[in-house]
Please model this.
Amino acid sequence: MSGVTVFGLCAAAAVGLGLYGLITNPQPLRKIIAFNLLGSGVFLLFGVIGRRGAAAGMGNDPVPQALVITGVVVAFSATALAIALVLRLFQTTGSTTLSNAAPSGTGSNPSGD
Amino acid sequence: MTEFLTAAVGFILAMLALGLVSILRGPGDADRMMAMQLIGTGGIATLLLLGTVASLPAAIDVALTLALLATFASIAFVKKGLSSLDADGTAPTEPK
Amino acid sequence: MSIATIFEIVLAAVVLGLGIWTIVVRETYSATVGFVAYGLLVALIWVRLDAIDVALTEAAIGGGLGGVLLLGAAAQLRDSEPAVTDAAGNAVRVCAAILSALTAATLAGAVLVLPDPAPTLAPAAVSNAWATSLANPVTNVLMAFRAMDTMLEKVVLLLAIIGVWSLAPDSAWGGHPGPRHQADPHGVLVFLARLLPPIGIVVGIYVLWTGANHPGGAFQGGAILAAMWLLAIMAGLADTPPVSSRRLRLILVAGPGLFLVVGIAGLLFGSAFLSYPPAQAKPLILAIEVAMILTIAATLGLLLAGAPERRTGQ
Amino acid sequence: MSLLGDIITIVAVSAGAFFFLAGTVGLLRFPDTLTRLHALTKADNLGLGLVVLGLLPQAASLRDGFKLVSIWLLGLLAGATVSQLIARAARQGESAR
Amino acid sequence: MLPPAPAPDAATTTSGFLLVLSIVVPIAGVLLAFVLGGRYVRLVAHTIIPFGVAIAGAILLALPQNEGPLVYLLGGWPPPLGVALRADGPSAVMLATTAIVICAVAIYAAADFSVPAAETRAPFAFWILLLAVWGALNTIFLGGDLFTLYVALELLTFAAVPMVSLDGRAETLRSALRYLLFALLGSVFYLVGTALLYGLHGTLDIVLLSRRVGAEPAALVAAALMTTGLLAKSALFPLHLWLPPAHAGAPAAASAILSGLVVKGSFFIVVRLWFNVLPGLPGFAATQLLGALGAAAIVVGSMVALRQERLKLLIAYSTLAQIGYLFLMFPLAYDASGRLASGDALAGGLLQAVSHATAKAAMFMAVGSIYAMLGHDRITGLGGVARASPLNVLAFALGGIALMGVPLSGAYLAKDLLLRSANENGQWWWEIVLQAGGMFTAAYVVLVLAHALAASDKPIALAGPTSRIRDAAPLVLSLCSLLLGLVPLGLYLPIPSDMTSSLFGPGILSKLLLPVLGGVVIAILLSPWPHPLASSTSGKAIMTGATRVRRGSLALGYLVERTDEALSQWPAASMCLLLLALLLGALMCVAT
Amino acid sequence: MALKAASRAAWFLCLWLVLAGADPADIPAAAAAIAAATWTSLRLLEPSTARRSVRAIGQLVLLFLYHSVVAGTDVARRALDPRLPLRPGFVAYPTRLSSGIRRNVFTTLTSLLPGTVPTGEENGQLVYHCLDVEQPVVAELAAEEAALVRALYND
Model:
């Protein structure tokens, strides 16, 4: 039981870390890494919940496990797409910053474009 | 026996963590590349012990996967991490 | 406190330490290294949680391939690092830390108050295993009980490929993804790239095959195969196929396509969409898994290779 | 038999843990990348080998025993080749610096 | 807890196979188009679309003949182990709407994304993504399992993000990346909630959960996290940082899909969650919070929209406002019993979603044609467009008028329903917001039309050819929205029978004129650009009287725009997300 | 050629048996795995023509195991010694092995020799990094090379 608690706390902490990184890191790549950390925390949460549901001779409920496997694949695809976007952005502009894309910049000064 | 093996896993894991600290600190990239090596050996040892402790024979398969994938990751590290230095004469030819 | 608990605390501390390193370290490259280490070590937690199927997936996709994907980007983006100056201010950091910590604490609280005994579908999954005659309940959930999710997830992979390809420059459309790697033919890298892939192929197919009755499956096997393919590509022994290749596209849709065909056959001739007649369930599922492992290996490999960059001969 | 097996396990795993300790101490104390690489590849590989040796008596079947050994061999192959790649990179990195 | 009754949803209904088909057909199209590639991509899409429309129609026909929802058990496995597809009234309506919009967009985009002999990038991606969006949306409308909905949401995101950057310009890449990252953050939040719900009740099936969920702390946390995640994906203020650049930068056909349909996907899941899974959980305060955010979205979105120089951005910001309008249904559905009732407010909200889907898609397409014709989309340069491209301006006007809430239109009916439930529940303050929402919508439509109808001193240089069929698509779609009130939606949505008769009741003129007049005033007050309105005689009269008021309101608009800009920074928006999740959770906790 | 293919296939069969065990139901998967692996292996690595001696291979394996133990102990001794006895440096070793696979096998084996890590080639000579340059590194390497040639590359 206690192992479940330890890893449950660990999962929550990973979620917190991922969120912090996602908010504060300015580079998109770091955000992607933080997103992966966040996702891994959520998956661990599923794992803990599945572990609590150990029954019928199984150490871990198979349904959450299947959900996590699906989730890991989806998260990987998301990472790949995001990285492809970052790299393409870098190729076309030479920088990867996400900011100053605020579109209202054009609307705020009626004289300029 | 189980206690002994669990303690051994904990010890090796702690060693792994200490090693990682020293490697990740650097200074050079080559040091960081060793991280995968370290995980390759230490992680496999931990997994094997863990599988025996919890009598999960399938943990061996995880160790096997880890062995293959950690190797792959280290190669990617050497290849990509030092592509500017032409490691092993393997710089990619960028189509520019 | 038992030794086991102490061990679990050590494990959680090591993993979290790596997580913290990943978030706070200044250099992106170091953060990536930290994350790969994190991903591979999380597999240990999964073993400890008795979820070997997930441990395999996490080791293969989460840590291995995912890490390499991030690493490749970090290596390419290295030069862009000094340009980034808009780092968050201290006030933002403090606020973000407080909010993240509160969220994490709420989550931890919610997990701790979950009911005991916990609800579970494990008995249902085990007692319905007769329908497929596969002994691995996780595979049963993925391939039978929740087959729809698995099929849709394959479509997600395909869409990721389309999304990545759609970022190609127009001139390179139809060409090969990623740079053409060349390596010293007498180097150690090539040596390993000649030795390891056959071993990896046997292991990958084994992981797929054993997935019917033991932990394993198409994802994990596919990830291993993809790694081996990429190894050969990185060593210059193989090249990525051009994205216009019809054969490649067939492989990329083989998994979801066969899944769909079997599903529709179930709708037309069987009892329901995505139902398998019990007698043929196992061969059908295995056939789908074989198609899927090809699709997954190709997809994961191409996702790592990136957008088409050059025409044949360039 | 099982007692003998247990003794082998305890001795070999302890020895393996010792080599992991030595490897980590080497990583912490050795002055440069290449010397640390020695510590990493040699000590840790031996540590892994000893752990595998120690687990052999506990293996459920002969096949599991073989599996353990082949994982060790795979680890050796990987360690030996990758360490060369890293060494090469490190040497070039040193000369480039 | 309800007694374990023999569930009516635990078996496949006779026409349940239609539900499978409506998901499988677009997905089969995706696979087929991907393999065939080249010249066949568009052909595959155009072949698949009639089938899809027919299936949606068949579901519309089959549903009233069935008692209760259509159900299909995938693989024959009943929940909780298996996954069920279910079509109730709202899902049928959304399916049909999606089919119509996709159809119109496909006709419109046929020329933009025509396929030459050799395969090219943008058409290849566009047609496949179009089908993928469709498949994903149908899964969202039909999915009876929260995790299946998660996969469908991701499918939707993966189909939508590349659409943003189809033309490959740097700024669209940047907006696509922002969109992707923020949407991923949203899905992770949703996923956490799913995990907690599974841990609580051992199932993710919507019907089973609705019987089991009570006011446990973990359920509250799950509800708060899932809702917030979905709000981020629906771009409800203040979580909208990604929407304006993404929707404004995409090609016109893609914008129509993104703005008309994609945001409705996550919105629909919020509705499912709050009305079907946990109607008793949110409580008064949380529903008021959602409504307040909606109201804020209306004000901020509209005010910023009126300050835009580029037409596409204006429409994108107005989408923001109208998304806010959709969320007004939540407080209004909260009735005396302390639960969210599936009554007038639900019907009104969904009707508004349908109206917006059709009208906004039409407007984006019309604007796309105008853009292509002029080579720019500056509002001040629109003079004379009405003569050069009357069909497109008409489509834009009709779409706008439909959204303003004039009689016969779906938005009118929706507003009436919402007003009625506001009246019934004694929440008079939402009546103000509802009226203001209509006026704000009128404001930007009037503003654009005033520019477009103004005579131009120099003839317009046409930058591209026009095509009748292409121009017809938005026109038909906006007509759909305009005449939505005549469709017998009472079969599918809980619309009281006396509502449709009120369409022709007295006071209709005031209901028509009030928003328009209000809109004119707002447009004059808030738009910083030189006005054709202001130069007209009536406009002059107002202007001279109210220069000071206008200066003040312009300053206010500037302030709002700055606020919006600040909130559109990544750290601010993501912290808002966390704050909102915590706040929602706290409010729900207090309520129970 | 066919013989070489068969011998490789036999190796992969062994690997499969170790991984999955001997179960008749596994035959299709095993056949597919072995066929795919053999095909890949033949494509990636052409078979060598040199004769092999089983006895010499056995000796090599024993030597190798012995070396790895000694190497590990050596590193451990140096790491744990408070005086940290290191005299690191590079040593060049002129090998007679042809470049390519043979040299790679040799460097891979010798990377587990005590105190040496191969760091690449310069002017046709292998460059080793040593923990202690005063050890008789070159002599040890020569002995190892002789054992390797006896075992695998005796042509």
Q: What stands out?
A: The mean pLDDT of chain D is 84. Chains D and A do not touch (no CB pair under 8 Å). Residues 2-96 of chain D form one domain. Chain D is about 90% helix and 0% strand.
